[in-house]
Amino acid sequence: xxxxxxxxxxxxxxxxxxxxxxxxxxxxxxxxxxxxxxxxxxxxxxxxxxxxxxxxxxxxxxxxxxxxxxxxxxxxxxxxxxxxxxxxxxxxxxxxxxxxxxxxxxxxxxx
Length: 111
Hints:
four-stranded antiparallel sheet; globular; six-stranded antiparallel sheet
């Protein structure tokens, strides 16, 4: 059974950085796309970034230039480096591998 477990969230100051991790298990992940999504309270889930299995990456406009997605296929781990975080409502960042979702890790940015 596929499991996705996120970690690395936590309170951070505006302008600060965090590194999120998603530990994947239950199958080989080197041949699938893996992505990060976020959801703020009262809002729908929105795309942040995706790591393609052929090495490509794609970012949302808000993530471009500030966030970096990467993966380690040897350890089945997906990462999201968040830099220059802006003060905004807390959001839960979730890992996604079709059709599975992790529980998410919260990233609140203090004002």
